[in-house]
Structures are given as structure tokens and as C-alpha cells.
Amino acid sequence: MLTPYRAHEAKKPHICAFCGRRFSRMNEAERHINTIHLKPFSWSCAKLGNPLSAFQRVTAGRDVFDVCGFCGHEFKRSEGGEALAETDSSRLVTHARVDHKMGECNAAKKFYREDLFGQHLKASHAAEPGVWMKSLENACKTEEKPLG
Known about the structure:
alpha+beta
């Protein structure tokens, strides 16, 4: 008969080489090691110091749009060109600050899992899932220096 400790070991055979914590699935152990011990990447709102960095320029025929990385809303540029007019810039900054509360969260906080950063964007910045959010996550991603 297995002791309670041995039964626990049998249910969680995957061990973290750094801290000895046990996991029932290999992918859980790998995720733990990558996010807790190795931390190869982090995501932070600090990378969005300029509200305009939350937007991606998209061209459709002759029209140029700025797409919000939080909600996917398209803002057509008034002059239709490559340059961002002052009125367009002001409209985009207002949208980011008012509708998505840019500048109101703890921008210094780092997330070491992309899914947790996505949850932060949804909860704190009224972000809506979609392809536009992926560009925002990429803009907020930083490669961390390796340990040691």
C-alpha cells in the first residue's frame, strides 16, 4: 500500500528542477519553469508610454486607418495620407485615455505570462479579443535578460 506521500508523488510525477514543486502534467511543469524561474519574456503597459503606440496603421485602398489595439475600432485619417494630422492624433489619444484608461494602471507591473497580460488588458483597459489585441501584446512584450 502506498503512503499518502508516495500517492502524491505518483499523481504528480513531473518535478521542477529549480524548486522541487511537483506537477501532474509535463506542460504544467514547463509553464511553471518558464514563467517562474526562467522568465524569458515579460509584458507591461509601460511599453505604451505614448498612447499612439496602442494603434496600428492600416491601409485600405486610398484610405488610411489607425486601428486601436484594445478594441479594434478603426479611425479613418482625415487627410488620408501617411502623416498623422494633429486632430487625428488628439482623437486617438483621447480614445486611448478615456475609453481604455491608459495611464491609470500600474504600468511598472510586469506579467510573465501572455495570457495573464491579456486578462489585465481586458479587466483594466476594456480590451476586446481579436487580432488587433495581438499587435498590442507584441508591442508590450520585452525579452528578459537570462538568469546568471
